[in-house]
Amino acid sequence: METSEGAFSWKPENCDTPKVAECFTKVAETKFAIKVEEFFNLFLSDNAVNFVKSFHRRCGDKEFKCSSWCPHDKFGHVRDVSFQHPIKIYFGAKFDSCQEAQKFGIYRNSHLVIETSQGISDVPYGDYFRVEVQARPELP
């Protein structure tokens, strides 16, 4: 990951990319004319936190917090993100607390797998579901 000097070390694991679970449904696909490593550096690395914070601010979120990526025994690297998201209904709280666990793994041929799991806690029945996302940027 990033060293204390801020240099990034891109180290793919010597194993195949895990299969996509059958419960996932593809909802979007797009092309970026950049390498996977550059995509990670621009949008997900510790150095990209200001970009991520700006994205959340444009969504109306506040109190954005993001930990640094840390190595994980079972899945590459992990970090935690939290923020307050505006609720667009006329009763109850004006903002909801969102917690997001993010993970990424780099596999053979620089295949990047990003997973997020997001939960909310301040709306009725918010604890009954989570939003699970898996992104797999591939070489152009």
UniProtKB/TrEMBL annotation:
Entries under InterPro entries matching the protein: VASt (IPR031968)
Annotated GO biological process: negative regulation of programmed cell death
Subcellular location: Membrane
PROSITE patterns: VAST
GO cellular component: membrane
Alphabetic keyword roster: Membrane
Lyase in keyword set: no
Protein's recorded name: VASt domain-containing protein
Species this protein is from: Gossypium tomentosum
